[in-house]
Write a structure and sequence with these properties.
CATH superfamily: Glycosidases
Strand content: 5-15%
Radius of gyration: 20 Å
CATH architecture: Alpha-Beta Barrel
Strand order of the largest sheet: 1-2-3-6-7-8-9-10
Structural class: alpha/beta
Oligomer: single chain
Number of strands: 10
CATH topology: TIM Barrel
Number of helices: 12
Distance between the termini: 53 Å
Number of domains: 1
């Protein structure tokens, strides 16, 4: 009887952690591309790129940074000044569906609520959600890093009683219009969290705050049969690994890795060096998508290690090496210009996003032959 109760308890606990929700095809592999969503005047070029460049390379996942570039009906006050319409989005959905490409829309949650000297739409409209209202944005054109306030990007306070009502309305609307099964919440580079001056977060463990926010977002999506993707940097100890404060954490959020549900998909960006952190995430029971950007030799190494890890690992681990994605940290227009003109980097070299994209997918094709 005790044994039966123990087994039942473990089933319940593992189901909550997500072990029981792995995809039926555990050996499916993500071949991804991540970029900001186009503005309406760039939509036709974007769709052309899907047909002529993404599909022929076998890309099957498009992580699309939407944020406030959509004509939201739930909160129209949060729209950008120029946005994609519902009809625009359906054109994107149609183009991707023709090639079996799933869209994973992204709206930055928790962190990245500002950039340099610009406050993001959420905190501009709802300043009460700001984790650090005492940190004022610098005058236009004067932002510098480092600075006395430690201002990189603002965060919303995860314990504010009204924040999830607003952001979840956006999430639900964006998931519906994109007909998506997975949502990317960002959650990278969160430097402001659990601040001493915050009346709600002061004195709280930052790792628990981070883990609870992941759990809250994950649970909301799970109620709708959807899954959560996040960037992985806050779950890596930046000091112990030597990776640093950008691609890993210096503010103790890394301990959250043992508290978050196991069905969250981790997008592990390691851009200037192949730190093989995918192994860490996989051994922790998480599916991980390795992410490259603008160093082609790093991307080649990451492709090799992905396929090697899948080849030499046991059945439980194979499916956790979930895939690889190329990421672009600009809008589509400058990327397309560099891509089609094969523009070199500032030093006349090949460390560019477009060259890395080409080289990475060439390596994938070579490995899969």
């Amino acid at each position: 009887m005790k044994t039966s109760c123990f087994i039942l308890l473990m089933v319940v606990l593992l189901g909550r952690m997500g072990y029981a929700q792995q995809p039926a095809d555990s050996l499916s592999i993500i071949k991804g591309f991540s970029i900001a969503a186009p503005k309406p005047d760039g939509l036709s070029d974007f769709i052309k790129f899907i047909h002529e460049e993404l599909a022929p390379r076998g890309v099957n996942t498009l992580i699309l940074r939407v944020d406030f570039n959509y004509a939201f009906k739930s909160h129209p006050e949060l729209r950008d000044s120029v946005t994609l319409s519902k009809n625009d989005v359906k054109k994107l959905v149609k183009a991707c569906r023709e090639h079996g490409i799933q869209i994973v829309p992204q709206v930055n949650l928790l962190g990245h609520q500002s950039w340099a000297g610009d406050i993001g739409n959420l905190l501009r409209v709802y300043p009460e959600f700001d984790e650090t209202p005492w940190v004022k944005m610098p005058p236009e054109g004067t932002y510098k890093w480092p600075n006395e306030d430690g201002l990189y990007c603002k965060s919303y306070c995860p314990l504010h009683p009204g924040v999830h009502r607003v952001v979840f309305a956006l999430v639900d609307e964006i998931m519906d219009v994109f007909e998506a099964k997975a949502f990317h919440a960002g959650m990278d580079e969160v430097f402001y969290l659990g601040e001493d001056q915050c009346p709600r977060c002061s004195g709280r463990d930052k790792s628990i705050l981070f883990a609870n926010e992941v759990q809250t977002i994950r649970d909301h999506l799970a109620e709708r049969g959807q899954e959560l993707w996040i960037w992985g940097d806050r779950l890596i100890d930046g000091r112990a690994t030597g990776i640093g404060m950008w691609a890993a954490s210096y503010n103790d959020t890394y301990r959250a890795i043992d508290m978050i549900p196991r069905d969250v998909v981790i997008c592990d960006w390691q851009y200037t060096q192949d730190n093989q952190t995918a192994v860490y995430f996989a051994l922790k029971g998480l599916r991980v998508v390795t992410c490259a950007w603008d160093h082609p030799e790093v991307a080649v190494s990451q492709v090799g290690n992905l396929y090697k890890s899948r080849a030499i690992s046991g059945e439980q681990l194979q499916g956790r090496y979930y895939g690889i994605a190329h990421t672009v940290w600009s809008g589509p227009t400058p990327f397309f210009k560099g891509f089609y003109e094969n523009t070199p980097d500032e030093d006349g070299g090949k460390n560019t996003p477009w060259n890395t994209f080409n080289v990475m997918y060439e390596k994938i094709a070579e490995v899969e032959q």
